[in-house]
């Protein structure tokens, strides 16, 4: 029957069940108190279901109503027994809030989700967290876990991040190296493309010299000057665009490495790798920008030199 005369009757009827009854009502109890008791029952069965999934054994005839865990550390095997029997007064003495219930639900979901490859890792980390949480307790009872559900979840979450990060460090270092090589390749591609265009500078000098020889009229000089201006403007403009592109690549590298800011383990090693890659990228970028600036100066020098020669020839033929 889902109706009970008092809390103690309800508790004696449900405390050893494997699952929470779908409906419970205590006759004569106010709504607020009913909600508080319902929250306790929800937390009780959530944690029991979680522990049942995590435990290595549920006990035997001589050890009933217990979840048994074995932990091996430094060649030492330890046994942890958690009883889920408690009196009604002990249950009602537990003070919990909505956050405790939500955190317990998150742990329950994490343990029950077995469709991904990290299922066993999560369970292992939660067992280790449970052992750590109760290591100083002589009488390990479920009420202790109920009283500190949010603390249990917080410690589990921290440990799980550490656990995952340990196996991620090498992968992260490889990603950083790959990003660095990719960005360096883009810088080299940009500078090689501009160096190819740089062959237009000596070609322009030769062409200008060849055209200047038969030039006699103002229109001849004007055509040569316009062509020279266009060529110089195109090369200088492209050089400046490539320099801006290289600066953007440096910014993009910084943005791509910010995703590792939340890493818990291997921070120093990762930051050293990022800094080494940043120095390498910065050195290559500065070298590329320096070569492009030299090419720009050469273009302007050629423009000025040819313009002066044209002016001298024009004045001589006038």
Fraction of residues in helix: over 70%
Q: Strand order, main sheet: write it out.
A: 1-2
Q: State the low-pLDDT regions, or none.
A: none
Compute the average pLDDT. Answer: 78
Spatial shape: rod-shaped
Structural category: mainly alpha
Count of beta strands: 4
Indicate how many domains the architecture comprises: 2
Q: What is the CATH topology descriptor of the largest domain?
A: Glutathione S-transferase Yfyf (Class Pi), Chain A, domain 2
Strand composition percent: 5-15%
Query: What is the string of helix and strand elements?
Result: EHEHEEHHHHHHHH
State the major sheet. 2 strands, parallel
Describe what this molecule looks like in 3D:
This protein is mainly alpha-helical and 318 residues long. The chain folds into two domains: 3-147, no CATH class; 168-317, Glutathione S-transferase Yfyf (Class Pi), Chain A, domain 2 (Up-down Bundle). Helices cover 71% and strands 6% of the residues. The chain is built from ten helices and four strands. The strands form two sheets. The protein has a two-stranded parallel ribbon with strand order 1-2. The radius of gyration is 38 Å and the shape is rod-shaped. The termini are far apart. The mean pLDDT is 78.
